Amino acid sequence: MTSKKTINFFYDVVSPYSWLAFEVMCRYRNVWDVEVKLRPAFLGGIMQKSGNKPPGLVPNKFLYMTKDLQRLAQYVDVPLSPPDDPFEAMFQKGSLAAMRFVTAVQEREKDGDRQVEQVSRELWRRIWSENKDITEPASLSEAAKKAGLSDSEIKEVLELCTTQHIKDKLINTTQEALDVGAFGLPMFMYRVNGNAEIFFGSDRFELMAHCIGENPVTARRDKNVRFFHT
Amino acid sequence: MTSKKTINFFYDVVSPYSWLAFEVMCRYRNVWDVEVKLRPAFLGGIMQKSGNKPPGLVPNKFLYMTKDLQRLAQYVDVPLSPPDDPFEAMFQKGSLAAMRFVTAVQEREKDGDRQVEQVSRELWRRIWSENKDITEPASLSEAAKKAGLSDSEIKEVLELCTTQHIKDKLINTTQEALDVGAFGLPMFMYRVNGNAEIFFGSDRFELMAHCIGENPVTARRDKNVRFFHT
């Protein structure tokens, strides 16, 4: 029996780079010898507590990111399209309700992480592809339904995500990300002799592959990694 | 006769990510069908005029960048090692004299860009590998000597770099970078039908290869790209 390396993937569905990283990671875990642990966190809390500022506040950076996301999305084959008002969607409406919902889905799911993966993807699709809301219970339910949850499962999740236990779980995951060095999302983390190794963003797969002893070229050349595995 | 794509590489020797990008670009231009035009610019001016803030001011980001640079440098085989006091070296001492010097080397060099490439590399080696000064004329001369310039050439360059013409040339290159969208360095830029396509940082080679029709895997697999071509 070998002990696979566990890669923790901290993400928030409000973050478009998290979506790109998520899809690529979901593909790579088929060809790398790793376990991926999905860690829904709250980007707003990470930005505030780390003292970081959203990069889009610098005009040239905002223009660049818009173009960068478009090119990357096309390259990695993710149907990303910015919301009509990214600032309203990201900063005014935000993702607290959505990430509590994802946390509750994960809490309920005992066997694997298929539901949390699919619900996360459907929420990204709403905000970062279809210009739809992710704050209202009806929006969250619709995403969960598309992700394959039954009506009774959705009802349970909606009740669960208002409990203190789920609020605390999201806070704790966010704090854990901060404690190992987060200043934004997405972030990958695995431990080597107890010490956290972190990788920020969607552009460190090649380096991460090198660091964990996987061949980045082999992984990249596998045609399966260019497509959703669902 | 084919018309090769010209990739403008805007950089400042005060920037460690510029060094990594520079070395990788210097390797890739051997295997990609492109012309690389070295464009020495002034990072301080770009940060100020774009309204951007140095990323290292956020504590978790500073710690991450230190680790990220160390891992990337090892991976791409560049002997990078931070100065004892990065803030003093980058922000108090800065790179205005150094980038005027590089600009003057480029102005003098009529045949190719071997001198400007080598002088830039030696300046990076001083600040980002050997914890040495890059602000004093003696420091600049030493770098140029290591890069293979003769004493008379160095004397000429030192005189040239105090002229208004060279000061203006550095300002103009910096302004050109801003005009096409810079908010930091390094930045790659090429034109498609007159429009500027830009790529920021040292981590967009795979995407850039895809966009210019080069095969990122073929380039990466060429063993030559892992070593200095000098």
Summary, kept brief:
The first copy, chain A, has helices at residues 16-28, 43-50, 59-76, 86-93, 96-108, 114-129, 137-146, 151-160, 164-179, 205-212, 216-221, and strands spanning 5-11, 34-40, 187-192, 195-200. Chain A has 230 residues and is α+β, with helices and mostly antiparallel strands.
Describe the protein.
2 copies of one chain form a homodimer. By secondary structure, chain A is α+β, with helices and mostly antiparallel strands. Chain A has one domain: 3-Layer(aba) Sandwich (Glutaredoxin). Helix content of chain A is 55%, strand content 11%. Chain A has 11 helices and 4 strands, in the order E-H-E-H-H-H-H-H-H-H-H-E-E-H-H. Chain A has a 4-stranded mixed beta sheet with strand order 2-1-3-4. In chain A, helix 6 (114-129) packs across helix 7 and helix 7 (137-146) packs across helix 8 (151-160). The model of chain A is unreliable at 223-230 (pLDDT under 50). At the A-B interface, helix 3, helix 10 and helix 11 of A face helix 3, helix 10 and helix 11 of B.
Properties at a glance:
homodimer; 230 residues; alpha+beta; Glutaredoxin; four-stranded mixed beta sheet; 4 strands; 11% strand; globular; disordered C terminus; GSTK (chains A, B); Glutathione S-transferase kappa (chains A, B); glutathione peroxidase activity (chains A, B); HCCAis_GSTk (chains A, B)
What's the total count of β strands of chain A?
Answer: 4
Number of helices of chain A: 11
Please name the CATH topology of chain A: Glutaredoxin
The major β-sheet of chain A equals:
4 strands, mixed
What is the CATH architecture term of chain A? 3-Layer(aba) Sandwich
Multimerization state: homodimer
CATH superfamily of chain A: Glutaredoxin
Number of domains of chain A: 1
Share in helix of chain A: 40-55%
Shape of chain A: globular
Terminal CA distance of chain A reads: 27 Å
Structural class of chain A: alpha+beta
Spell the H/E element sequence of chain A.
EHEHHHHHHHHEEHH
